[in-house]
Amino acid sequence: MNSPADTSRVTSAKIVIAGGFGVGKTTLVGSVSEITPLTTEAIMTSASEGVDDNNLVPDKATTTVAMDFGRITIDQDLILYLFGTPGQTRFWFMWDELVRGAIGAIVLVDTRRLADCFSVIDFFEHRKLPYLVAVNCFDGKQLHDLNDIRDALQISHDVPVMYTDARNRESTKQVLIKLVEYVLSMRRTRTVGVH
Amino acid sequence: MVLGGDEPTGSLVRPYAVTRGRTRPQLEIALEALVETTARGRSGQFLGGREQKVIVDLCGGRLQSLAEIAARMEVPLGVARVLVADMAADGLLAVHEPTGFDADGGDGSVGTELLERVLSGLRRL
User: Which PANTHER family does the UniProt record give (chain B) (predicted)?
Assistant: First the structure.
């Protein structure tokens, strides 16, 4: 077993997987996770804090939202979790907790339902959480030009936009790598700017 | 109402019964915080209810996050958080909070080093 000195270094990190309902978030998580994706549920009652003003749930309702997540052991002391966001974006109470301390987010997009991810992108921009856009190619079909998708989403030119196949482990791995590289490059730019 | 999953929700009837109605944990614990059974927890002699035994067994092998504990026990996250926080306060569990990428103020070197570890880990997959 680990000595006390070892276990004090143990830590975890998380990446948020967001996108509209049915876009393939759990499929993406499952393609790289070392465990079968698990589901955790959160209950919001009237006692919950951080309830968004726009919340559509009546005051005293008890609402359960489910999130699927997976796990990747990076090394002995570091475990990465991938959390899929609840399918419906109106349950913002859970999103605050999901993004707190996250490395960044992957916005998984279905070009047939592009508008599904507008509110998600707004949320990440507002919270200043780095994100990239991964266009899920169902059946391997790349139906749209990535620049057209960038324009339609009205996102900044430096936000990575890429194709992916959420079912494919290697493809998902490349998306995760791209996100972490992007976050690192943002940090380096910021550090250079400060000094 | 359950969204995004077809998991059985029979355990949600009175979710906070196992915490005797308490919904506020003694300690805020992140979703991804890692939980490990301590030697005191492993000894088994300080354990209270059935839930405590389940958690001690669950976290006695490899590290488990709060989210995993909740999922594997089929209890809501808030319930798991109250249980784990109580057990941590009693010295039965150790909770390893995530380091945080921006919490290190200064030059952010701790966060950067962590990100580089994540990156090389992903490349090795």
Answer: DUF742 DOMAIN-CONTAINING PROTEIN
Question: pLDDT tens digits, residue range B51-64?
Answer: 999 999 999 988 99
What is the C-alpha separation between A135 and A98, in angstroms, rounded? Answer: 22
Q: Map out the domains of chain A as residue ranges.
A: 11-194
The answer to whether residues A18 and A106 touch, using CB atoms and an 8 Å cutoff, is yes
CB contact under 8 A, B101 and A103: yes
Whole domain around residue B28: which residue ranges?
11-99+108-124
**Bridge partners of residue A42, in order along the sequence:** A65
Q: What is the largest CA-CA distance in chain A?
A: 54
Give pLDDT tens digits for A16-69.
999 988 899 999 999 999 999 999 988 876 444 444 444 444 445 677 888 999
Q: What is the third-level CATH fold of A11-194?
A: Rossmann fold (3.40.50)
pLDDT of the residue at A193: 52
Closest Cβ opposite residue B107 in set A38, A78, A191 = A191
**Residue A190 banded pLDDT, cuts 50, 70, 90:** confident
- Find which of A12, A168, A191 to mutate to test the B interface (most B CBs within 10 Å of its CB): A12
**Pseudo-torsion of CA A101, A103, A108, A109, nearest 10°?**
90
- Is B77 close to A41, i.e. CB distance below 8 A? yes
Q: Considering the entire predicted model, what is its pTM?
A: 0.86
Q: What residues of chain B, 52 to 111, have a C-beta less than 8 Å from chain A?
A: 63, 65, 67-68, 70-72, 76-78, 94, 96-101, 103, 107-108, 111
Rounded to an integer, what is the distance from CA A73 to the centroid of its chain?
A: 18
